[in-house]
């Protein structure tokens, strides 16, 4: 297990709520006020809410929470519960007649893991928000509850996955990651040089490229997927730099998940800054890719 949690960046809180019987859940990240956030969506089949406004060309740069959820598009409902809870706490942009919280959300497909009739609701979103803390948990919790990885040859040969996190420090600089791994592709730990998940035949991992070439119709129907995560840092960056940071963090996906960013995945990464420490984007981006790979490994090993 690699060490660290998203809350190692001071001021960031995380909450989870799950339905183990239904096989789904929601994770809420609550940053401190004055944060800056952007997102990079690389997969071909994303399910998102309030992500467009995080682009560098748009005005809003601060978020009041980020929601990661199961349930496919149905799970976006959980973000409404978080939004209403924030409103009740008086948190959001003051619009004169009240506050409007900004709550971006991304979902993954877990309807084939548990019940296809159960997904994160507004109530679950509110419960996850109210459970926020400097949490130190990983595995089959929150949005990781129904995660399964390495589905290239179908669910029967796939591996249970979950939610993982990790962090790195360099002096005062902190870079941390949280990720829910529901990937089509196989999972690897590049630092340890080992494969962590993939379909096996006769006890041996099947070569991923042969699997993709030889199982055409099975590959196309190999469940629905998506890896969704957050990179957080106390480094000072604007939205343009954070968009690039999220893109650099996707290198962690690419090192650890093969194939990744397919048309059957909705792979996304949010980049979140609390703006406390001066740092070089190239340094932080290199750390972000490494810490994301570590978090992916934890998501498999702790599920």
The amount of beta strand, in percent, is 25-35%
The end-to-end distance, rounded to whole angstroms, is: 12 Å
Give average pLDDT, whole number. 94
Describe the strand arrangement of the main beta sheet, using strand numbers. Answer: 1-2-5-8-4
Query: What is the radius of gyration computed over CA atoms, rounded to a whole number of angstroms?
Result: 18 Å
Helix and strand run: EEEEEHEEEHEEEEEEEEHHEHEEH
* SS field, number of helical segments: 6
The main sheet comes to: 5 strands, mixed
Structural class per helix/strand content?
A: alpha+beta
Features:
single chain; 303 residues; alpha+beta; 5-stranded mixed sheet; 6 helices; 24% helix; globular
Characterize the structure shown.
Strands 1-2-5-8-4 form a five-stranded mixed β-sheet. It starts with 12 loop residues before the first strand and ends with a helix. The chain has helices at 77-88, 122-130, 208-214, 216-220, 239-256, 281-301, and strands spanning 13-19, 24-30, 36-41, 47-49, 66-69, 93-94, 99-100, 105-107, 148-149, 159-160, 163-170, 173-182, 186-189, 194-197, 200-201, 204-205, 226-235, 257-258, 268-277. It is globular and about 65 Å long. With 303 residues, the chain is α+β, with helices and mostly antiparallel strands. A hairpin with a 4-residue loop joins strand 6 (93-94) and strand 7 (99-100). The mean pLDDT is 94. It contains six helices and 19 strands. It is 24% helix and 30% strand.
């Amino acid at each position: 297990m690699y060490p660290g949690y998203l809350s190692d960046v001071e001021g960031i809180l995380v909450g989870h709520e799950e339905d183990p019987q239904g096989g789904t859940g929601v994770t809420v990240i609550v940053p401190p006020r004055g944060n800056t956030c952007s997102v990079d969506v690389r997969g071909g089949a994303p399910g998102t809410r309030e992500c467009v406004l995080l682009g560098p060309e748009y005005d809003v740069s601060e978020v009041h929470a980020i929601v990661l959820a199961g349930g496919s598009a149905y799970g976006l409902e959980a973000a409404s519960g978080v939004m209403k809870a924030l409103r009740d706490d008086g948190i959001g942009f003051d619009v004169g007649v009240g506050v409007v919280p900004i709550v971006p959300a991304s979902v993954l497909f877990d309807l084939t893991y548990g019940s296809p009739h159960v997904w994160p609701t507004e109530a679950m979103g509110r419960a996850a928000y109210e459970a926020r803390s400097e949490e130190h948990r990983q595995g089959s919790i929150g949005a990781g509850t129904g995660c399964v990885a390495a589905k290239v040859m179908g669910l029967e040969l796939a591996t249970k996955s979950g939610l993982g996190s990790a962090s790195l420090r360099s002096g005062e600089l902190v870079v941390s990651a949280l990720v829910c791994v529901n990937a089509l592709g196989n999972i690897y730990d590049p630092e340890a040089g080992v494969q962590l998940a993939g379909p096996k035949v006769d006890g041996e991992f099947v070569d991923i490229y042969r699997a993709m070439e030889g199982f055409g119709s099975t590959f196309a129907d190999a469940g629905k997927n998506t890896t969704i995560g957050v990179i957080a840092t106390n480094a000072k960056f604007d939205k343009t730099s954070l968009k690039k940071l999220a893109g650099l963090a996707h290198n962690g996906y690419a090192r650890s998940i093969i194939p990744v960013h397919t048309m059957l995945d909705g792979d996304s990464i949010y980049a979140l800054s609390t703006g406390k420490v001066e740092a070089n984007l190239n340094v932080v981006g290199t750390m972000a890719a490494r810490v994301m790979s570590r978090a992916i490994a934890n998501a498999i090993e702790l599920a």
